[in-house]
Design a protein that fits this description.
Elements lengths: L10 H4 L8 E4 L9 H10 L4 E4 L19 E6 L6 H8 L4 E4 L2 H13 L3 E4 L13 E4 L2 E7 L3 E7 L2 E3 L4 E2 L8 H6 L1 E8 L1 E3 L18 E4 L14
Parallel strand pairs: 1-2, 1-8, 2-3, 3-4, 8-11, 9-12, 11-13
Antiparallel strand pairs: 5-7, 6-7, 9-10
Protein name: 3-oxoadipate CoA-transferase
Family: Belongs to the 3-oxoacid CoA-transferase subunit A family.
EC number: 2.8.3.6
Length: 232
Protein backbone atom coordinates (compact mmCIF):
# COMPACT_ATOMS: atom_id res chain seq x y z
CA UNK A 1 0.00 0.00 0.00
CA UNK A 2 3.07 2.26 -0.21
CA UNK A 3 1.64 4.02 -3.25
CA UNK A 4 -1.20 5.34 -1.12
CA UNK A 5 1.13 6.97 1.41
CA UNK A 6 0.55 10.71 1.01
CA UNK A 7 2.98 11.94 3.66
CA UNK A 8 5.64 14.47 2.66
CA UNK A 9 8.69 15.40 4.68
CA UNK A 10 8.93 19.16 4.19
CA UNK A 11 6.76 22.18 3.55
CA UNK A 12 8.73 22.85 0.38
CA UNK A 13 7.68 19.41 -0.88
CA UNK A 14 4.13 20.00 0.30
CA UNK A 15 3.76 23.04 -1.94
CA UNK A 16 5.82 21.82 -4.89
CA UNK A 17 4.17 22.99 -8.10
CA UNK A 18 2.61 26.14 -6.67
CA UNK A 19 3.35 28.88 -9.18
CA UNK A 20 2.72 32.59 -9.70
CA UNK A 21 -0.80 33.46 -10.81
CA UNK A 22 -2.50 30.39 -9.35
CA UNK A 23 -5.72 30.26 -7.31
CA UNK A 24 -5.32 29.08 -3.72
CA UNK A 25 -8.24 27.98 -1.54
CA UNK A 26 -7.43 28.39 2.16
CA UNK A 27 -9.35 26.88 5.05
CA UNK A 28 -9.93 28.67 8.33
CA UNK A 29 -12.23 31.18 9.96
CA UNK A 30 -10.53 34.12 11.62
CA UNK A 31 -7.46 32.44 13.11
CA UNK A 32 -9.31 29.20 13.88
CA UNK A 33 -8.20 26.21 11.85
CA UNK A 34 -5.88 28.11 9.52
CA UNK A 35 -3.04 26.31 7.69
CA UNK A 36 -0.51 28.65 9.28
CA UNK A 37 2.65 26.78 8.28
CA UNK A 38 1.56 26.33 4.67
CA UNK A 39 0.83 30.05 4.52
CA UNK A 40 4.30 30.74 5.93
CA UNK A 41 5.80 28.50 3.24
CA UNK A 42 4.01 30.46 0.49
CA UNK A 43 5.56 33.60 1.95
CA UNK A 44 9.00 31.96 2.03
CA UNK A 45 8.63 30.78 -1.58
CA UNK A 46 7.69 34.30 -2.67
CA UNK A 47 4.90 33.07 -4.94
CA UNK A 48 3.11 36.11 -6.36
CA UNK A 49 0.05 37.28 -8.26
CA UNK A 50 -2.15 34.86 -6.36
CA UNK A 51 -5.91 34.74 -6.19
CA UNK A 52 -6.75 33.60 -2.67
CA UNK A 53 -10.18 32.34 -1.65
CA UNK A 54 -10.84 32.22 2.08
CA UNK A 55 -13.38 33.43 4.62
CA UNK A 56 -11.05 36.29 5.55
CA UNK A 57 -7.45 37.42 5.11
CA UNK A 58 -6.04 36.79 8.57
CA UNK A 59 -4.73 39.68 10.63
CA UNK A 60 -1.73 41.98 10.37
CA UNK A 61 1.36 39.82 10.77
CA UNK A 62 -0.29 36.40 10.97
CA UNK A 63 -2.26 34.00 8.82
CA UNK A 64 -2.98 35.11 5.27
CA UNK A 65 -2.12 38.64 6.36
CA UNK A 66 1.59 37.85 5.99
CA UNK A 67 1.12 37.39 2.24
CA UNK A 68 0.05 41.02 1.95
CA UNK A 69 3.38 42.26 3.30
CA UNK A 70 5.20 41.53 0.02
CA UNK A 71 2.07 41.98 -2.09
CA UNK A 72 1.85 38.31 -3.03
CA UNK A 73 -1.96 38.39 -3.28
CA UNK A 74 -3.41 40.00 -6.40
CA UNK A 75 -7.07 39.20 -5.71
CA UNK A 76 -8.87 38.20 -2.52
CA UNK A 77 -12.27 36.47 -2.58
CA UNK A 78 -13.63 36.59 0.97
CA UNK A 79 -16.70 37.22 3.09
CA UNK A 80 -15.09 39.25 5.90
CA UNK A 81 -12.16 41.67 5.82
CA UNK A 82 -12.44 43.69 9.02
CA UNK A 83 -9.34 42.73 11.04
CA UNK A 84 -6.47 43.77 8.80
CA UNK A 85 -5.19 47.34 8.44
CA UNK A 86 -2.75 46.45 5.65
CA UNK A 87 -5.57 44.79 3.71
CA UNK A 88 -7.63 47.99 4.03
CA UNK A 89 -4.73 50.16 2.86
CA UNK A 90 -3.97 48.04 -0.19
CA UNK A 91 -7.65 47.92 -1.12
CA UNK A 92 -8.08 51.69 -0.85
CA UNK A 93 -4.83 52.28 -2.74
CA UNK A 94 -6.02 50.08 -5.61
CA UNK A 95 -3.23 47.55 -5.08
CA UNK A 96 -5.53 44.66 -4.15
CA UNK A 97 -8.61 43.42 -5.98
CA UNK A 98 -11.33 42.27 -3.59
CA UNK A 99 -14.48 40.28 -4.33
CA UNK A 100 -16.74 40.34 -1.28
CA UNK A 101 -19.12 37.39 -1.12
CA UNK A 102 -21.81 36.60 1.48
CA UNK A 103 -20.45 33.97 3.84
CA UNK A 104 -23.01 31.27 3.10
CA UNK A 105 -22.70 31.91 -0.63
CA UNK A 106 -18.91 31.59 -0.42
CA UNK A 107 -19.25 28.28 1.40
CA UNK A 108 -21.70 26.99 -1.20
CA UNK A 109 -19.49 28.18 -4.08
CA UNK A 110 -16.67 26.05 -2.72
CA UNK A 111 -18.93 23.12 -1.91
CA UNK A 112 -20.37 23.23 -5.43
CA UNK A 113 -16.88 23.36 -6.90
CA UNK A 114 -15.93 20.22 -5.01
CA UNK A 115 -19.14 18.48 -6.08
CA UNK A 116 -18.72 19.30 -9.77
CA UNK A 117 -21.72 21.64 -9.84
CA UNK A 118 -20.87 24.62 -12.07
CA UNK A 119 -23.38 27.14 -10.69
CA UNK A 120 -26.47 27.57 -8.53
CA UNK A 121 -29.20 30.09 -7.75
CA UNK A 122 -29.56 31.75 -4.36
CA UNK A 123 -31.78 34.51 -3.00
CA UNK A 124 -28.91 35.89 -0.92
CA UNK A 125 -27.65 39.19 -2.30
CA UNK A 126 -30.57 39.96 -4.58
CA UNK A 127 -31.25 43.71 -4.68
CA UNK A 128 -27.73 44.57 -3.48
CA UNK A 129 -24.47 45.35 -5.34
CA UNK A 130 -23.64 41.63 -4.99
CA UNK A 131 -26.25 40.91 -7.68
CA UNK A 132 -25.02 43.41 -10.27
CA UNK A 133 -24.52 41.81 -13.67
CA UNK A 134 -25.76 38.39 -12.55
CA UNK A 135 -28.59 36.37 -14.05
CA UNK A 136 -31.85 36.54 -12.07
CA UNK A 137 -34.59 33.89 -12.02
CA UNK A 138 -37.71 33.58 -9.95
CA UNK A 139 -38.38 30.46 -7.88
CA UNK A 140 -41.54 30.11 -5.79
CA UNK A 141 -42.29 33.78 -6.28
CA UNK A 142 -38.89 34.94 -5.03
CA UNK A 143 -36.02 36.27 -7.19
CA UNK A 144 -32.68 34.44 -7.06
CA UNK A 145 -29.29 35.29 -8.53
CA UNK A 146 -26.92 32.95 -10.33
CA UNK A 147 -23.63 32.27 -8.54
CA UNK A 148 -20.77 30.31 -10.07
CA UNK A 149 -18.82 27.60 -8.28
CA UNK A 150 -15.23 28.13 -7.15
CA UNK A 151 -12.35 25.75 -7.73
CA UNK A 152 -8.64 26.21 -7.18
CA UNK A 153 -5.22 25.09 -8.32
CA UNK A 154 -4.15 24.42 -4.72
CA UNK A 155 -6.04 24.01 -1.46
CA UNK A 156 -4.19 24.57 1.80
CA UNK A 157 -6.00 22.96 4.71
CA UNK A 158 -5.52 22.55 8.47
CA UNK A 159 -6.65 19.26 10.02
CA UNK A 160 -6.37 17.79 13.49
CA UNK A 161 -5.58 14.17 12.75
CA UNK A 162 -5.01 12.12 9.61
CA UNK A 163 -3.73 8.75 8.53
CA UNK A 164 -1.06 8.25 5.88
CA UNK A 165 -3.75 7.71 3.23
CA UNK A 166 -5.02 11.26 3.70
CA UNK A 167 -8.22 10.60 5.64
CA UNK A 168 -8.69 13.71 7.79
CA UNK A 169 -10.53 14.69 10.97
CA UNK A 170 -10.97 18.34 11.99
CA UNK A 171 -11.38 19.39 15.59
CA UNK A 172 -14.62 21.10 16.59
CA UNK A 173 -15.10 24.53 14.98
CA UNK A 174 -11.74 24.27 13.19
CA UNK A 175 -13.72 22.27 10.64
CA UNK A 176 -15.18 25.57 9.25
CA UNK A 177 -14.14 26.10 5.60
CA UNK A 178 -11.44 23.40 5.59
CA UNK A 179 -13.42 20.44 4.18
CA UNK A 180 -14.96 22.70 1.53
CA UNK A 181 -11.54 23.88 0.38
CA UNK A 182 -10.13 20.35 0.50
CA UNK A 183 -12.63 19.05 -2.05
CA UNK A 184 -12.45 21.90 -4.55
CA UNK A 185 -8.82 22.05 -5.74
CA UNK A 186 -6.62 20.22 -8.22
CA UNK A 187 -3.96 19.71 -5.52
CA UNK A 188 -4.98 19.53 -1.86
CA UNK A 189 -2.36 19.80 0.86
CA UNK A 190 -3.33 19.16 4.47
CA UNK A 191 -1.18 19.93 7.51
CA UNK A 192 -2.18 18.15 10.71
CA UNK A 193 -1.18 17.87 14.34
CA UNK A 194 -0.91 14.10 14.28
CA UNK A 195 -0.56 11.35 11.68
CA UNK A 196 -1.81 7.95 12.85
CA UNK A 197 -1.67 4.47 11.42
CA UNK A 198 -4.43 3.32 9.04
CA UNK A 199 -7.28 1.82 10.99
CA UNK A 200 -6.82 4.11 13.99
CA UNK A 201 -9.42 6.52 12.66
CA UNK A 202 -13.03 5.34 12.86
CA UNK A 203 -14.30 5.54 9.26
CA UNK A 204 -17.53 7.09 10.55
CA UNK A 205 -15.57 10.01 12.04
CA UNK A 206 -13.70 10.99 8.86
CA UNK A 207 -14.57 14.49 7.64
CA UNK A 208 -12.44 14.58 4.46
CA UNK A 209 -11.83 11.22 2.77
CA UNK A 210 -8.34 10.61 1.44
CA UNK A 211 -9.61 10.57 -2.16
CA UNK A 212 -9.60 14.39 -1.99
CA UNK A 213 -6.13 14.73 -0.47
CA UNK A 214 -2.83 14.70 -2.36
CA UNK A 215 -0.29 15.50 0.37
CA UNK A 216 -0.19 15.28 4.16
CA UNK A 217 2.37 16.87 6.47
CA UNK A 218 2.63 16.87 10.26
CA UNK A 219 3.46 20.24 11.81
CA UNK A 220 3.50 22.24 15.02
CA UNK A 221 1.17 25.18 15.43
CA UNK A 222 1.06 28.48 17.26
CA UNK A 223 -2.75 28.60 17.37
CA UNK A 224 -3.13 32.26 18.25
CA UNK A 225 -6.34 33.54 19.79
CA UNK A 226 -7.67 36.37 17.66
CA UNK A 227 -9.51 38.22 20.42
CA UNK A 228 -8.89 37.00 23.92
CA UNK A 229 -11.82 37.65 26.23
CA UNK A 230 -11.80 36.93 29.96
CA UNK A 231 -14.33 37.52 32.70
CA UNK A 232 -13.53 40.00 35.43
Amino acid sequence: MAGFDKRVNSYAEALEGLEDGMTVLAGGFGLCGIPENLIAEIKRKGTRDLTVVSNNCGIDGFGLGVLLEDRQIRKMIASYVGENALFEKQLLDGELEVELTPQGTLAEKMRAGGAGIPAFYTATGYGTPIAEGKDVREFNGRPHILEHAITGDFAIVKGWKADRYGNVIYRHTAQNFNPLAAAAAKVTVVEVEEIVEPGEIDPAQIHTPGIYVDRIICGTFEKRIEKRTVRS
